[in-house]
Amino acid sequence: MTTLEHEARGEGTVVDRRRRARAGAWSRLDLHGSPYLFVAPFFVLFAAFGLFPLGYTVVVSLHKWDLTGDAGLIGFENYSTLLADPDFWNALLNTLGLLVLATVPQLLGALILAALLNRPIRALLFFRLGVLIPVVTSVAAVAIVFGQLYGRDTGLVNGLLHLFSVGPVDWQASRGGSWVAVASMVNWRWTGYNALIYLAAMQSISRDLYEAAQIDGAGPVRQFRSITVPLIRPALIFTVVMSTIGGMQLFTEPLLFGQGDVSGGSLRQFQTIAMYMFEQSFQNFDYGYGSAVAVVIFLLTVIAGVVNAVVGRMVRGGTQ
Amino acid sequence: MSTRWFPGRPGLLKISVAALAVAGLIAGCGGGDKDGASSEGGTITLTVKTFSQFGYEDLYTQYEASHPGIKIKQENIAQLGDYTPKLQQWLTAGSGAGDVVALEEGILVKLMAKPDQFVNLLDYDAGSLKSNFLDWKWNQALTTDGKKLIGLGTDVGAQGMCYRTDLFAKAGLPTERDKVGALWPSWDDYLATGKKLTAANTGASFYDSSGALYQNILMQQGDTTYFDRDNKLIVDSNPGVRKAWDQTVAMIDAGLSGKLTTWSPQWNAGFKKGTFATIPCPAWMLGIIQDQAGPGNSGQWDVARVPGEGAVRGGSFLAVPTQSKHPKEAAELAKFLTSPDGQTAAFKAKNNFPSSPAAIDSAAVSGAVNKYFNNAPVGKIFGTSAKSLKPVYLGPDNQVVGDAIGDALTAIEQGKLKPGEAWDKALSDAKRAAGK
To answer: pLDDT digit string (tens) for B380-395?
Structure first.
């Protein structure tokens, strides 16, 4: 046998075989390892800026930690204080109240808006882009404008109410008034965004269904209820979950509505849990306690998300 | 620099809308967190950490010229709200705080609870400088046993009482500032004047809102407020607190308050439209009044002395963290910057009102007048106010307790609580906040 034949049959010398095995290891590593390398940037960044702060917040929440530094591990004391803290429950009530006031009208409004935009109307592109304008407006600008609108002495809203001989309302002073004002800010800002999501979902619905329904004698309202809404359900669930998460973290609007007062009014009537966290951490510099609030917000948001998903699934079972 | 962040009540975090809007832009200007002190080839670099505007640029140049071998690096953070968390990080991490750090009053009283993070300036012969500072300013940075000094005073938010001359004229009151000041030797007299003005139906309230007034009255009530020197909460037993509260409630009852939230649109507009006749104004507020009232109202606003004896809202200090590698040189620099000459220079640069009696008496400060306010001798008015204030001990949790009481006063103004209920709520909130 010649050397050539040896090699052709893959028998080779010992050295050759080793070399080939090494190359095989490399290519195996390349095959199985490199994909991890390619996706690594995201995970490394997520670990550094997402996971680590999350874990560290939990650690800090178990400590007594203020402006002068770490004063030692105190276990769950921050949490037990928190559960007995009326200001926290008050903030939670405000957050949930604002969540309802800001999410329900917003999503209903978005649904109606999307249905209108899904029809052949004049200047369609103009209107479709127009509903996005609030989203690209800076929150600070929104808050300044709404702050003027809801001004006690010279506000436009009180001016309008005056025409009907109502008021003047001190929007900041009462719980109801401040909730309405803050919720209107959130609604104004996000209705258009959700409408576009619904619109995109609506456009993927086959026209045939509507034609068939028309032949069966269903009017526009019936078509909307029986075809449009069920078929865009994934989009509905998505927006509900996103709005809930946004609502749980509501911060800037109520903060700026109160001229930057993190206690959210004289009786904390519009202080959200995010504001309460900020107050404890960065006004009172009680980092341990503030971190405990942050962890609880995280858990509550997870719970709200899960509840949404479960309800969404139950609704699916109901309609189909 | 000192208190613009805390306009309504000292220490209350009020982020003005504009401030928040630009916060994002300036957040990036924090600068590197690297070790401040470094020495190469015999040159020592001292890093000075400040917030807002301390007006030290010329002083640095001057100091470097007179101290060969010293280089100064300033790292400034525009907003106090961004600066404080960073400061905490530097102190906790044990590096990054540089050699000289600026401490706002509210932060200083908290840090006094754990003074070991800062060099004892008495070890660097600062003791001889005591007469350079107002007594209360000196004492604020001195531990209660008097053995450790952690900071040297920079500026103070010396305060006067600003008033609308046109409204005073309409109500038949004197408009000339000395005579206006003579109207209210005490807060009772201020109340009486307020009743006269509101009775004249000028359409304006007597003052903007009660929080700042209460704070002003409280600081004149003796040497403690909410805490005694052992940091025991005495808010319910200190007669001074109750007196300041009752005095403020009496003014609300008399209908003198405009019930305007500080920084709200109607508060801002009030300066121009004259919806309130007086407002307690620290030195830094003069610029805000001028901006809000506009050039058309030049001369309508004037400034007089405050009722009672003196008033100050906030102020700052310079300290040397123990993590500094050149504490001796850093302490020398801090002494230089807070010297009477240094403070006078900072006043000239950025109108930061000095805490040094010698600087207050210097021609540059005491001769300062403000054109917009009818050429009021503001240097003299604010100087007298700062000098006549007696030392008050605050305690590390002063701010949260003050916030609880301030909120209760606002609730009375808004008609949400009766004074009695508000007082009970303030006390229970204060106890909870201090016990946390």
So the answer is: 999 999 988 887 888 8
Chain A residues contacting B via beta carbons under 8 Å: 66-70, 81, 85, 87, 138, 140-141, 143-144, 147-148, 151-155, 170, 172-174, 252, 255-256, 258-263, 266-268, 279, 282-287, 289
Closest CA to B159 of B342, B277, B7: B7
DSSP A238: H
Class of domain B157-312+392-435: alpha beta
Alpha carbon distance B109, B11 (integer Å): 11
User: Which one of B257, B266, B421 would you mutate to disrupt binding with A, by most A Cβ within 10 Å of its Cβ?
Assistant: B266
Mutation for B interface: A56, A60, A68, most B CBs within 10 A = A68
ipTM over 0.85: no
Residue of B91, B109, B209, B261 to mutate for A, most A C-beta atoms under 10 A: B261
Report the DSSP pairing between strands B276-282 and B205-207: parallel
* Cα(A95)–Cα(A248) distance, integer angstroms: 6
Q: In this complex, which of A143, A170, A282 lies closest to B17 when CB atoms are compared?
A: A143
If pLDDT is split at 50, 70 and 90, which confidence band does B11 have? very low
Give the 3-state secondary structure of B305-317. Answer: CCCCCCCEEEEEE
What are B286-337's pLDDT values in tens digits? Answer: 888 998 998 989 889 999 999 998 888 888 999 999 999 999 999 999 999 9
Task: Read off the pLDDT of each residue in A96-109 and give the average, rounded to a whole number.
Answer: 94
Note the pTM of the prediction, 2 decimals: 0.81
Instruction: For domain B17-156+314-388, say whether CATH 3.20.20.70 is its number.
Output: no
Please report the domains of chain A, with CATH numbers, ordered by start residue: 3-61 (no CATH), 78-319 (1.10.3720.10)
User: Could you tell me where in chain B the CATH 3.40.190.10 domains are found?
Assistant: 17-156+314-388, 157-312+392-435
What are the pLDDT digits (tens) for B181-208? 999 999 999 999 999 999 998 889 999 9
Predicted confidence at residue A26, as pLDDT, reads 83
DSSP letters spanning B213-233? HHHHHHHTS-SBSSB-TT--B
Cβ–Cβ below 8 Å for B266 and A151:
yes
| C-alpha gyration radius of chain A | 29
Q: Amino acid identity of B190? A: Y
